[in-house]
Amino acid sequence: MKSLLLIFILAATMVAQNVVELNLPKSNKVVIKLMFRNGCISDPKGKEGLTYATANLITQGGTKDLTYSQIQDKIYPWAASYYATVDKEVVTFTFQVHVDFLDQFYPILKGLILAPAFAESDFERVMKNQQNYVDQVIRASSDEEYSKKALEDLLFRGTNYQHKPQGTSAGVKAITLNDIKQHYANVFSKKYLEIGIAGNYSDAFLKQLKADMAALPAAKYAPPKPGNANMPKGVVVEIVAKDNAFGSAIFTGTPLAITRSSNDFAALMVANSYLGEHRKSYGQLYQKLREIRSMNYGDYSYIEWYNNGGGNMLPPSGVPRTSNYFAMWIRPVQIAKQLQKQYKELSDIKIGHAHFSLRMAVREVDKLIHDGMTKEDFEATRTFLRSYIKLYVATPEDQLGYLMDSKFYGRKDFINEVDKLLASLTVDDVNKAVKKYWRTDDMFVTIVTDKSEAEELAKSLRDNTPSPMAYSNAVKAGLPKAVLDEDDIVANYKLNVKKVTVVDSKDTFK
């Protein structure tokens, strides 16, 4: 009897130690997040996409008592919602409801997590959508997202970080309903669960939530060791050739030795913001490529994975990672056949703006590494950043998400801690961090482009051929001499290209 009591006490203590609270008595809603330390790196070999399928069958299926349609009908009047986020190392289920309906909504939450129906009809619907994504949607809907996924496939090739959460074509085809049931029992374990709750909730409710989640499987599961990013030898380029590509979408990446867990991360945040904060027009990349030369929609840099960059204006929570990399995103630039059709004076060009834009982006990083930021630029960027990061946690859901991510990185409250780090930074700290952690001689590059451009672009990159900027006569006539002079330098800027491969779009993510 004593041993059973001891086991119960230890289990209760373990659950209590994995709760992040954000009590907001004046809030009119409650947010609950359940973060599991599994993610797609827990997918078995040959079943890539299984964790994603399991999480989605939970949120897009029914419970033992209600069908998916019945759940949706019930929660609509309550202004309630829920969804799953699946990334490399974690799966997070997020539930939100108006406080007046928490007691009515909770049985549904409990049923979804503890007693998912895993019905055959729901399985067929969910898997059809997932298969369609890995076979069609990723290749057809957004070349920008395609280039990002292709970069991760290249950067982490041969590791458990290689495949995207949605899986591979063959992996998704191999998944059965029984696989999902077994995976749920094996890896959605209470041992690696972190509970987050924000809003206007009672102590009694939280106590009930913790007690109920203690009923999750207690499988002997240990999260696999995350794969490390490969270090390229020189600049390694993979060009994905597809029919009727809108332009050339470019994403670069090179391993980064630190994450938010390091105090040096704050210094890189300043440098990154100066170079190209996501969706911000003041960055050097944006100014040089879009603002001055009107080459594309936007150009940004990153010091950690930025989920759904095309849809998010601010970096979302719920995608913490151990393996990190520095990246640049050059949104699609025009290809030769587009420019040829628009301007007679460009009828003889063989490649569009991809080679030039890549050179310009790399050159901007090189300048930052070698010359550093000025004190004036540092002060302006740091002042902006200290205000901007507070927007990351503008809602209770965002606040809770960032607090939970903070624990992943061994921190208590990343936003407050990094603000203090930023306050004490100097321009020398930033410039030293850039020299220490960033590089351009060894990096991976993925370019999704039209088949008409792929081979010529590959040849230009391999041979380091001069790549003059292709302007129409009217545009060129209106540019100042300083811009044209810089164009000549960029056109001949040598990249340390060691390997260029062209792959057919149909052969990716197999």
Could you give a short description of this structure?
With 510 residues, this protein is α/β, with parallel strands linked by helices. Helix content is 45%, strand content 16%.
Provide structural commentary:
The longest helix is centred in the N-terminal third of the chain and has 21 residues. The N terminus is likely disordered. The chain has a six-stranded mixed sheet with strand order 8-9-7-10-6-11. Strand 3 and strand 4 form a beta hairpin. The radius of gyration is 25 Å and the shape is globular. It has 510 residues and is of the alpha/beta class. Helices cover 45% and strands 16% of the residues. Helix 2 crosses helix 8, helix 10 crosses helix 14 and helix 11 packs antiparallel against helix 13. The chain has two domains: 212 residues, 2-Layer Sandwich (Cytochrome Bc1 Complex, Chain A, domain 1), CATH 3.30.830.10; 273 residues, 2-Layer Sandwich (Cytochrome Bc1 Complex, Chain A, domain 1).
